[in-house]
Each structure stands twice: as structure tokens, then as C-alpha cells.
Design brief:
Elements lengths: L3 H10 L2 H29 L6 H25 L9 H27 L3 H8 L1 H13 L7 H18 L11 H24 L5 H22 L9 H27 L2 H5 L4 H14 L6 H18 L13
Helix pairs in contact: 2-10, 2-12, 3-4, 3-9, 3-10, 4-8, 4-9, 5-7, 5-8, 6-8, 7-12, 7-13, 9-10
Length: 321
């Protein structure tokens, strides 16, 4: 019975339709974080280049998400508080890298480059994931089909973000360089997380890595002069939503990575900026009904279909509305 349960979970989370629905759900949640974070900065009066305060805000978000998941795991009878020294050291390394270090590089880079450039370069996470998976895993090699799918997905991200002529300013190491480093850190940490999830429950792993990463961001933010500002009802609700979406999205994403090849799941990350643009238009009154967004949707869905399809079970991309 104990041996059959993991096999059943593997079969369930490897089903093409399940992968499509759950991976898309994660991307919707992460996409909603763009307008939510911007609204949070406005509510708390965090200035554009106030990176320390942004780290404090992110730190509370991830720490709260992690603690909620750990408490839930304990209530469900999972061994969240019965970890070996080796297991905890693995989770600490994952939390510092995937949540802490990655967001430090991302927020510093974001302060020294445009949002357009950041969103384009952040899509290199998928490239790094597919290439690293090709190097590390014997059953997740980079084929011509995967390469074409990644190129189509990246073209979609590029299309949805190009407005006017945003690429004229010269790049910098602190700006564009840090965004690319953040993307690489996230890719490498996700692959490391896949190996950790083999021996640790996905909810327990996600809870601890979010909590440890959030604590790292809090310490770094406060140490460099960051503040959170006055918390009101609106900002409190917004922070709670951001924590909830992080808890749900990271847990589901970890489960998908645990039971599927990295390259098959990571390509869905191309949907995040698509949903981010759509939800930003909805909640921040930004323009979305343009030809470039429709072209981007076709390119991204085409890329996902190429990378995730198999000879026996093709995956058809759903519409983003």
C-alpha cells in the first residue's frame, strides 16, 4: 500500500491535463503578484529605488507564507518539525538561494533597469532550466523540439513587453546583469529543490524554504535601512494575499517538478509575464488590447505545446483571458 501511493501520485501529477492546469494556475498566481506588489508599494509608500524596504516587504511576504505552510503541514500530520540535521541544512540552502539570494539580485537589478528589460531578461530562467536539466539529467535532454519551443516562448515574452523603443539605454552589471544572475540562481535552485523533494514532503520543503528565505530577506532589508511603513487594512489584506499565493504556487510547482522532467515544467514560466500583463491591465488600467499581446499569446502557447507534447499525449494550450 505504501509503495502504491507514490506510484499513484507520480501517475496523477504526470498526466498532461493535470500538468497543464496546475502549471497554468501557478503562472496565474505569480502573474497576479505584479499588480499586487506594485499596489503594495503604493499603499506602503515605498519609493522606486528603496530596495531595502522592498526586501523587507518581500521578507514578510515569504516568511508569512512559509510559517502558514509549516503550521498546515503539522496539522496534517506531516513531519515538518521532525527533520534531520542534513535535511534542515538542505532546506536552509534552498531557502537562502531560491527565495533569499534570488530576490536580492532581482530587486537590486530592477532598481537599475527598466521593467521592460527586467521582464524580458527574467524569462531566461526557462533557458537556464532547460540547459541545466540537459546537463544534469539523462532523461531530460535538450532536443530540437524543446529548443524551438523555448525560442517561441521567449519570442512571445519579448513581443508582449516591447513598447516603443525601450532597449536604447546601455545595459549595466547592476541592472541587466543582476536580473540574469537572479534568473540563473532561480533555475539552479529549482533543480536542487527537485532533488531535495525526493526525500522531503513538498509542502514541508516549500514551507521551510519560504520561511528561511523570507527571514534572510528581512535581515538583509532591515540591516540596510529598510522599513515597512504603517500597515493598514488594505495593505494587510494585500500582504496576506501575496503570502497565500506564494504558499500555493510554490507548493504546486514543487510537486510538478518532483514528478516531471524539469524542462517539461519550466517552459510554463513563459506564461507568467503574459498573465502579469493581462492582470496589470485589469487592475492598474494598463493597455492590453493590442496586436502584440495576441501575437505573444500564440507564440507562448506554441512554445509550450512543442516542449510539453509527447508522441502519444499532446498537450493543447488553453486560452489566456
Amino acid at each position: 500500500m505504501n509503495q502504491a501511493a507514490p506510484q499513484n501520485r507520480t501517475q496523477y501529477f504526470s498526466k498532461p491535463k493535470v500538468v497543464l492546469v496546475l502549471a497554468t494556475l501557478c503562472c496565474v498566481l505569480w502573474g497576479s503578484s505584479y499588480p499586487a506588489i506594485k499596489s503594495g508599494y503604493e499603499l506602503l509608500g515605498i519609493a522606486q529605488h528603496d530596495v531595502p524596504s522592498k526586501l523587507v516587504f518581500a521578507g514578510y511576504r515569504f516568511l508569512l507564507a512559509g510559517v502558514c505552510l509549516i503550521v498546515l503541514a503539522v496539522i496534517m500530520g506531516k513531519p515538518a518539525l521532525r527533520l534531520s540535521t542534513h535535511q534542515f541544512s538542505q532546506l536552509a540552502m534552498l531557502g537562502v538561494a531560491q527565495t533569499g539570494l534570488q530576490y536580492v539580485f532581482f530587486y537590486i537589478g530592477l532598481a537599475y533597469t527598466t521593467g521592460v528589460r527586467a521582464s524580458i531578461l527574467n524569462a531566461t530562467t526557462t533557458f537556464f532550466s532547460v540547459v541545466l536539466a540537459h546537463i544534469i539529467y539523462h532523461d531530460d535532454k535538450l532536443s530540437k523540439r524543446k529548443s524551438m519551443g523555448c525560442l517561441l516562448g521567449f519570442a512571445g515574452v519579448l513581443t508582449v513587453n516591447v513598447v516603443g523603443n525601450p532597449l536604447n539605454a546601455p545595459p549595466s552589471m547592476q541592472g541587466e546583469g543582476f536580473i540574469v544572475i537572479a534568473a540563473f540562481v532561480l533555475s539552479a535552485a529549482s533543480i536542487y529543490g527537485k532533488s531535495v523533494s525526493v526525500h522531503i514532503d513538498a509542502m514541508v520543503m516549500t514551507g521551510w524554504q519560504l520561511a528561511i528565505g523570507g527571514l534572510t530577506l528581512l535581515i538583509g532589508g532591515y540591516a540596510t535601512g529598510g522599513t515597512l511603513g504603517v500597515m493598514k487594512v488594505e495593505s494587510t489584506v494585500l500582504l496576506a494575499y501575496l503570502a497565500l499565493l506564494s504558499a500555493v504556487a510554490f507548493t504546486v510547482w514543487s510537486l510538478l517538478l518532483k514528478y516531471n522532467p524539469v524542462g517539461r515544467i519550466s517552459v510554463f514560466a513563459f506564461l507568467v509575464p503574459i498573465f502579469g500583463a493581462a492582470l496589470s491591465a485589469l487592475f492598474l488600467d494598463e493597455s492590453i488590447l493590442e496586436w502584440k499581446n495576441l501575437v505573444a499569446l500564440v507564440l507562448v502557447c506554441g512554445g509550450i505545446w512543442l516542449v510539453t507534447r509527447t508522441h502519444n499525449a499532446p498537450i493543447v494550450c488553453s486560452k489566456v483571458t
